[in-house]
């Protein structure tokens, strides 16, 4: 089920022979995959299969045990800030820590060496795109889960990344907040990877899906084909999404 892609398309991420262990615990084993510019890629897999770990490696937070990762053709170096990529954390509380929503959104652009005018442009654009005009003066700590989620996304979008990694973005969202998030993701222009157990969200937003399990990419293809394969899904602790069982 692996897809072959033309080499001529620009690679946003090129992962080559990536292996990673947390001391004795082997998580990823010799993974190679390319994400092309403009793709919306879902990352699925059972609990503990290494989705978050793969994101942390891709952002340069963790150092590979072996192998290489290239971001827009330039190798990732651990600890180096790469404004081309943004990570939206699984828990927005890990990302929001300033006294106002506006300050939180401005934090990234302010640390990129931009002028005050440029920072303000980035902040206003992120507020507009995420539709959080009504939250700007609020204290992030007091927001609801859905509100925090969109503010955390705004904080990342404000740095104008070309590629955004979303780690479980719909976890703990009610139906209305989840619907708003899906609409936002569908309208987003960036290349994106979305790690999620919300398979219906992946179906609605992504044009490609990777199934990660036992340290390997088990399947890579069209979300309907991969997630519609019941034996494959069940073999890796997942369920075929309901919407694919009724059509
Ligand atoms: N800092 C760490 N130190 C040691 N082991 C870790 C650490 N972080 C994660 N792990 C382990 O690495 C494995 C992969 O974890 P990871 O969080 O990447 O999985 P995941 O696919 O994102 O899981 P989930 O779907 O539950 O969010 C798990 O067995 C986890 O317990």
TrEMBL record:
SUPFAM superfamilies: P-loop containing nucleoside triphosphate hydrolases. Its main location: membrane. GO terms for cellular component: ATP-binding cassette (ABC) transporter complex. InterPro entries: AAA+_ATPase, ABC_transporter-like_ATP-bd, ABC_transpr_CbiO/EcfA_su, ECF_ABC_transporter_ATP-bd, P-loop_NTPase. CDD domains: ABC_cobalt_CbiO_domain1. Pfam families: ABC_tran. Keywords: ATP-binding, Cell membrane, Membrane, Nucleotide-binding, Translocase, Transport. It is found in: Cell membrane. SMART domains: AAA. GO terms for molecular function: ATP binding; ATP hydrolysis activity; ATPase-coupled transmembrane transporter activity. It comes from the Bacteria. Residues 13-239 form the ABC transporter domain. Belongs to the ABC transporter superfamily. This is ABC transporter ATP-binding protein. It comes from Chroogloeocystis siderophila 5.2 s.c.1. The lineage of its organism: Bacteria, Bacillati, Cyanobacteriota, Cyanophyceae, Oscillatoriophycideae.
């Amino acid at each position: 089920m692996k897809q072959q892609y033309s080499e001529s398309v620009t690679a946003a991420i090129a992962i080559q022979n990536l292996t990673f262990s947390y001391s004795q615990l082997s998580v990823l084993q010799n993974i190679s995959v390319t994400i092309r510019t403009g793709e919306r890629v879902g990352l699925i897999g059972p609990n503990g299969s290494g989705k978050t770990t793969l994101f942390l490696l891709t952002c340069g937070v963790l150092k590979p045990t072996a192998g290489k990762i290239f971001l827009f053709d330039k190798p990732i170096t651990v600890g180096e800030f790469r404004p081309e990529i943004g990570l939206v954390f699984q828990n927005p509380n890990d990302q929001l820590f300033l006294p106002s929503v506006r300050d939180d959104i401005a934090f990234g652009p302010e640390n990129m060496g931009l002028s005050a005018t440029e920072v303000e442009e980035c902040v206003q654009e992120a507020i507009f795109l995420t539709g959080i005009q009504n939250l700007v003066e609020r204290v992030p700590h007091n927001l609801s889960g859905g509100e925090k989620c969109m503010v955390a996304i705004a904080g990342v979008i404000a740095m104008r990344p070309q590629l955004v990694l979303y780690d479980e973005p719909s976890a703990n969202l009610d139906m209305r907040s989840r619907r708003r998030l899906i609409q936002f993701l569908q309208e987003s222009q960036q290349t994106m990877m979305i790690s999620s157990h919300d398979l219906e969200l992946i179906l609605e937003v992504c044009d490609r899906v990777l199934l990660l399990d036992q340290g390997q990419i088990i399947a890579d293809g069209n979300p309907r084909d991969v997630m519609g394969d019941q034996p494959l899904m069940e073999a890796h602790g997942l369920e075929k999404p309901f919407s694919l069982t009724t059509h």
